[in-house]
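Here is this case:
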Amino acid sequence: MPTGISLHVGLNRVDPTKYEGWDGQLVACENDARDMAALARASGFEDTLVLTEKGTADNITAELRKAVKRLKSGDILLFTYSGHGGQMANLAGGDIEVDRQDETLVFFDRQFLDDELYREFQQLAEGVRVFVLLDCCHSGTAIESVRETLTPQALEAQFQTADPGQIEAAARMMPWPKQQQLFERDRDHYEKLQRELKAAKANNGRVPDAILIAACQDNQVASDGSVNGLFTERLLKAWDKGGFLGGYREFHRGIQKIMPPNQSPNFYTTGTPSQDFLDQKPFSI
């Protein structure tokens, strides 16, 4: 029988000593992680739950690497994240350009680049299926670098304002001034890391067969909530306690139908997920 391993990360805040005084307080992310862990457990996955203070880059990387050591062809890894999302300039190719961004997951102690997550997935054995759910801002392609920017025009369309101060309380987005401040502070570190990741990606050549359903597009922000994030709440509704019938694309469409037009979940793949994988009921082992 195939093995299913799942890792569920939920951060209701971050360490203000690592983020220049910003604690990124959110409401529903730990609930999201608990609910996704319970769903995975009911589907037969071995689940690991990582909440807030434990949600450091080292801890999460270590948990992913434990899964890498155990999973073999035919097995499945489920990774879910609920928290803040960010963006930073990608310097690996040279000078900063406004349309060259890395998406980040805002872990407790530092931002985790999309290509860092991709690097961990690259270590999986050939034939391991990967399913990722990200409930955070800028998450549309946040398992590898793709170029798209959150523009004032997109923000205006989504929230009827381009003023970040009116958006941040309801959104899982690191404030722009804080993103820029932290990027400038850690610029040398992230430029070196981006170059290393670019080289490793090229040298490895392995492209993991991964399916991502993300809370929004790269140029959108995701809403928090009082119990669950908006995306996770609607995902659970579409799942209908296991009553959902269909594959991953149908699941994405089912969630999308009950989302507001200003937050459009994205369906994204890397590698070449087989038709059998795509057609499986989500969370199937």
